[in-house]
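Re-run with default settings, no changes from the original entry. Doing this only to confirm the output is reproducible before filing.
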Amino acid sequence: MPKRFDQARPFLTLALVGLAWLLVPVVVKTFTRASFFELTAPLSVAPSYARDLQEYWTLRLHTNSELIEAGRDLARLNASYEESVQQNLSLQAEIARLEELLRLPAYADYRSEHARVVRRDFSGWWQRLVIRKGQNYGIPVGAPVIFAGGVVGRVSEVHTYTAVVELISDPTVRLAAVVEGETQPISFQGGINTTFDPPKGVIEFVPLNVFASSTMPKKLVTSGLGGVFPPGLSLGTITKVEPSLDGLYKTGEVQLDPRLMSLTEVTVLVPRNPE
């Protein structure tokens, strides 16, 4: 009997610890979790700075001819970007003119804050990133996060020097979307994603007149409803739709940008007027 008791002692200890943790007030749990995150933040941020330093010295080892060729390519990119900036300015002026003519409310203005990715946490339960900026750069909870391919996700936690970003592939993320060129809103939600599979999401309340397949996909973009994400940002590609159980709408699958799993830098859209 004593031998069985000794074997069961670790399980009893874990059960008692778990029960004690459940009885701890929520305020204490929140403080403990935040304190632990702040204490471990330097351990996560240090490898990120080390990778940046490694990339720097790797670039220093390139020959002069390679650097000259890279400079020429960069000059071409700068020329195309300057042209794009001029087009963007003219489009913004036209939008402002139409808003004033039609007396439409202007969209919320954002400040772009670029941030390096410190860590990626991918599992079947959550999909998130940790970035190298937080309260020290004025990043608020709920701020949208984007990259060159469209929407990355939204900020779920903000700490002193870091912030946690929930990816749009996370099952807890829901937002209003539309098919590009359409106006009827669709409910988008992150899907159940495994570590090595391409990221995907699901859509609900799809109008019956929407058809899409892997051979004839349709682009899904943000609708602007809800006030979190600006309209027109790319979410992914609808590759499948089928009638729902009630027959009133359709449901479907959305293939997300595969670069979500390997991002090294993102952009946080910080509202200039939080109200």
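The first helix runs from residue 2 to 23. Helices lie at 2-23, 26-60, 64-102.
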